Amino acid sequence: MPKKRPLCRKIGNHTKENMKDALLEIASGKKIRAVAKEKNIPFSTLQRYAAKAKASTSIENVQLVPHYDINRVFTNEQEQALTEYYNNCALMFYGLTTKDCRKVAYEMAVINKLKMPQSWISNKMAGIDWLKSFRKRHNGLSLRKPETCSLARATAFNKDTVNVFFDNLQEVYNRHSSFADGTRVYNMDETATTTVQKPQKVIGPKGKNIGKITSGEKGTLVTTCCFISASGQALPPVLIFPRKNYKDHMLKGTPPGSLGLATSSGWMNSDLFVTTMKHFIKRNSSSMENPSLLIMDNHESHLSIEALDLAKENGVTILTLHPHTSAKLQPLDVGIYSPFKSYYNAAMESWLLKNPGKPVTIYDIAELIGIAFTRAMTPTNIINSFKKTGIYPFDRDIFTEEDFLPSTVTNRPNPYTIQNPLDVSLQDIRDIERNSPSVLETETLPGAEPEREQDPLETQYISPKALIVTKQLQQPIKPQCSKSKDVLVSTGAFVSPSQFRQPLKALPRANRRKRKPGRSLIATDTPEKENIRIQRLEVKKKKLPKKNKANEPKKKAVRKVLQSESEDDTENISIHDEDSDWCEENEDSDWCKEDEVGNKIEMLTDEKLLLNILPRLPKEEDYVLVRFSTKRKSVYFVGKVLHERNDKLEYYVSFLRANRKYQFHMPSNPDLSYVKEYDVKFILPKPCLGGSTLRQQSYYYFNVDFSQIDIR
Question: Does 484 lie in the same domain as 339?
């Protein structure tokens, strides 16, 4: 039978002042039993204290309350160290169970050579009674059921990734003054709405299994895409149904202006996102004169070139989040989708009560989404969601150190700054099973710097300048049992759990990752968009089936130049092979081959541009060569400097388009972006117009040889 413990203590409930008043009344001549009844003190207890007071010369020399601390294992300071260790582990998402907490307490008692009960030594852990009393003494601790969190999400939200996002956000805010009031700042994200709800708590009889009716074992997915503005408004949503063809009756009950789409999987893809982008542009009236900012995650379906071109043509600046940070940086995930799912589940349960025995289908989901949408998308919820993420009002210091604690596990030291790291093993001092605890003694090598105090969350790598040698004592100390008359004694310096426990730090990464990690970026800027275009082409090339070239005739190699997918660019830029009529027309043109005055044309190479030092800083109206590096190669663009910002060493550049004859022209839609000073590799000479025909006069020609670099 389990031990029945009383709810409250029956002895030792009196205070020091109460007992002192009772003894003074007894000394004045009152009976002990009458005083015990009046002061609500047990008669035997008062009689025992009265005998001690009579034998003593003064009441002040008598201990008037029980000395329960004599059996305590840890002092208040030591228990505070335990509490901090438990809290840090929980905040780092590596919380300890009740058994783990008891084992840590036992290890700390053994390491610090404290006297403990015999049951601790037998069970190799602290007792359950000690843990309950420990929790009562520290009300800040509670037994919680943690939420699951993936390792990628816990470690991706760190200071570096958050600072990169806020740097990009601040740069976008500085571009357009219309973003200052928040009316043109939007957030977009998808969420899954299925035909099976998550049951809520119900009232039922005790001791009985209570169930809840759902539409099926596994629900059918309908993706809901929502748009919210920092001003507190919500645009009509987009619903993607798992069907080949979309029908208008599927949107019955949704908010007015909603868009319905269909795909076989029910998920968002690149083709549907283009239609979704058109819906967003239409509903918020975005244009070049009325620009808008759209913040979203960097899922592959969101970064199609066609969608990015469409957004840029209509004044939409797309800013993406770093992967696995949307739970803290995306307003929809922070404060909207949680109440939306609660209202959606409640609406489905109400629908099932009104339609008993009838399952929910995808044709009923639209009505349920409409009910939940109007209740969750309130101005208060939306404004508070943007405020909590620090997006609007802009606040890059919105997150505290506790928010970044889970990522400290993988905050590894830079392998290029630390040479020959020494990983000091602390397993010897944790040899509890053999009853041979050890105490750390540190010795500093001659000439080494004194050791600084380290935070328990810092890395355990030791610098070569301050090597610490760890060793055990020659004679092991056995755990000692405590007796009722013993006094709590701690020998040596106190060792906290953060010192003798294995640190929560990941090992150095093997650096075998092949895929390039995602990041926060301004996707509509030309450099980022071109990088995305190159990555898409590389993926398509890998997916193409390999051909058997043994029996195929050799083909003449033709240099391929990447072209824009937008309609305006394809009208002015066309890529031809050597047999085209356009090449024959310009084959004898002198200015295509050499300078008109016969000067030698300067040849540019990657090696030369990489080491090139600009003779001066670019100025307005200068034509410059901008370099953008990808994982495998470098790409160059020609641009015209429109404005310079000396405070940030940036230049506002309008990029030109190039064809395979190295002739450049301004696109019909200006391609504008900020460029850092270190990306400008060459200041080009003033261009001249080419040819005698009207078409040739629309191109610029530079007295430079671009044949050795990848020019776009």
Answer: no
